[in-house]
Structure formats: C-alpha cells, structure tokens
Amino acid sequence: MAADFRAQLPALANKTYFNYGGQGPLPTPALQAITTAWQQIQELGPFTGAVWPFIEQTTGRLRQHLARWFGVPPHRLAFTENVTSGCVLPLWGLPWQPGDELLIGDCEHPGVVAACRELARRQGLQLATLPVADLRGTPAETEARVLERLEQRLTPATRLVVLSHLLWNTGQLMPITAVAQQLAGHSRHPWLLVDGAQSLGCIPLDQAAAAADIYACTGHKWCCGPEGLGAVALSERVLEQAQPTLIGWRSLRSEASGSSSFHSDSRRFEVATSCVPLYAGLEQSLQLLEAEGSAEERLARIQRSSQRLWQGLGAIPRARPLLEVAPPAGLVSFELEGEGPEATVNRLGQQSIWVRSLDEPHCLRACTHITTTDDEIDRLLGSL
Predict the structure, then answer these.
(1) Which of 157, 291, 332, 333 is spaced 20 to 30 A from 307 at the CA atom?
(2) Which fold has domain 51-288?
C-alpha cells in the first residue's frame, strides 16, 4: 500500500528524501484539493453569503478529523499556523505568578525555549532544566529515568513542565501519559506543555494529547500536508484558566462591537483570517495516510525502516547512532567521524540524498517514513 501513497508524492521522483521531520512532501491529491478549494471560493465569491457555508464545512470537517487523531473532543482543538504558535499562544495566557517555575526538557526546540525565557523575563518566573538528552536506551528504561528525574526536580514552585513527545534531535520517545499522571499527584498539579512537532503522522498520539494540557502539532511534517497549518489540543482546565493573548475576530463569539466575549472553547486561541484551502489539503493528506492503515500499523512500517537504517549505521566503523537501541519511531540521529555534519549534508545533497544536520547534539538526522524503501536506505548507507 505504501507504494500507492509514494506514487502520489512527486517530490520523491528525483531524490532520496530523509527530511520528513523538517517537512514532508505534499501528495498530488492534496495539492489538487487546495487548488479546487481556491477555485470554489472564487466562484462562490471570497466574501459573500454563499461562501461561508463552504468555509465552515471545510474547517469543521478538519476539526472533527484532527480531534479523532488527537483523542479529544472537537471543542478542545484549536487551529494554528504552526507548532510554535500552538505552544505559545495558550502558554502566555495562563495565570502566572512571580516566582513560578518552568521545568523545561533539555531537548526542546529553540523556538519554544526562547518563548519560555521571554515569558519568564516578563512575568518574573524561574527556569529549571529536566535532563533527557542523555537517555539513549529502551522505552522502559527511558520512562523509568524520566519519571525518576522528574520527581527529583519538581519543587513547590513548579508550575509548568515542557517536554516533547518525540525528541526532534535524539529521536527518543518521552512517556507523556506517565508524566501527566505523575504531575497530577504534585501539590500544584503543574501544567504539561508538549511539543508534538514530530508526532502527528508518525506515532499514535491520542493518549498523550488527551493527557497533556497543551499539545501542539503541525500538519506539514509527517502528515505530508501543506505548510502553514497546525493544531493544538487544550485540556479542560486550560480552557477554564487561560486567557487569549493574540486576539482577533475568530477569538470572539461574534463581531458585535463592544459587547462580544471570547469563545468558551479552544477557538478563543484562534486569531483571524487563515488560508482555508490549506484545510482542504491537510484533510486530503490525512485521508491518504489513513488508507495506508491505522496509526499503529503505519508506525510499525516506519520502525521497520528506521531499524534497518540504525542497524546499517552500526555496521559502519566511523558511524555511531545516538540511540543505543533501535529507534522508537522514524528519527535516526547519528554521528560520523572524519567529516563535519554540514559537509556530509552538502556531499550527500550533491548525490540527491537529503538528510539534515543538527547543532545540539552536533550530528546528522535521517527520517524514515512509510514511503521509505530499502533501496533508499541502502543508498544512504553506501554513500556514508
């Protein structure tokens, strides 16, 4: 079945692609859905009474669809442009008090870390670090160590924990559901913010997203959707406690001047005009992925490819995979002796093989998807 999906990705026709964690290629049917939506909007009139039912149907269908993937009711799901805005907009609206502590994993993306630092500066908050970058073992070992370290670093001042579901640099899986359960027993029940940039379309996320307070994803990576559209799942207590930060007409119940209040559900964190045809494109990409099997079945195929790559790297004397065991998903990070990561990226790019370099740790990262073939993995290994 993966061959059918792959055949609909024209970007894979002339290259060997391992950068799904940066951006997935857009399937032709998704591009056609975007174009068709543009055409229909123009035919109906971009701002007419006739166009609004189409817009509401298009956005509503995707909200319902993504809510099922996230394992939450639709009223807990807000649309965003990307992961960072999905994390930051509700984060900055929470009721902070000076002295509150943010406990941040040491593998978090710089965009989210920078937002937390600026929030701390403005609100007089404290920052602390939860070390997870060195965890390279089995999922069971990792879960035990994460929970142990979390218990050690939680203080009476801890108000928020920030932790990605699938670490974008080492490829390790974090036990989000178990972390949420542990935080529920803390005296202040800290909020849990999860960066799910590498999750949606790669691993099953419904349990973790339902357990977190803020779980933000994007559609343009493993879902192979268009860039510029993502979503965030919010807990009921965030909906009760957080106030909108960046505000626009979509945040409001109505446009009545001076009398309108914010939506009571997740829509209060949506802002203003968005590109509706992108919703149709992501909806089509989700349907194409679902036709390839369940989330668990797709992950098993991703793992098969990542394990093949991980094992092959282990057989190359100058290569060292970061993880000590086969990757839990599709991110395979590794070091290569005798050549800097950037030089390796450039050399492979000249052969139309595309991986990426990372700064922390300074290494290379290759991503396998359900579309990845054994021949592609062997070609990468041979070039290395």
Answers:
(1) 291
(2) Aspartate Aminotransferase; domain 2 (3.40.640)
* 262 within 8 A of 251, measured Cβ to Cβ: yes
Q: How far apart are CA 139 and CA 142, in angstroms?
A: 5
Q: What is the pLDDT of residues 269-300, one digit of tens each?
A: 999 999 999 999 999 999 999 999 999 999 99
The two three-digit tokens of residue 277, written as one number:
């045809």
73-106 CB burial, b ≥16 within 10 A, e <16: eebbbbbbbbbbbbbbbbbbbbebeeebbbbbbe
The three-class DSSP label of residue 166 is strand
**What does the alpha-carbon distance between residue 206 and residue 43 come to, in Å, rounded to a whole number?**
38
Q: What is the pLDDT of residues 350-374, one digit of tens each?
A: 999 999 999 999 999 999 999 999 9
Architecture of the CATH domain 2-26+294-383: Alpha-Beta Complex (3.90)
Instruction: Say if 2-26+294-383 and 51-288 have the same CATH topology.
Output: no
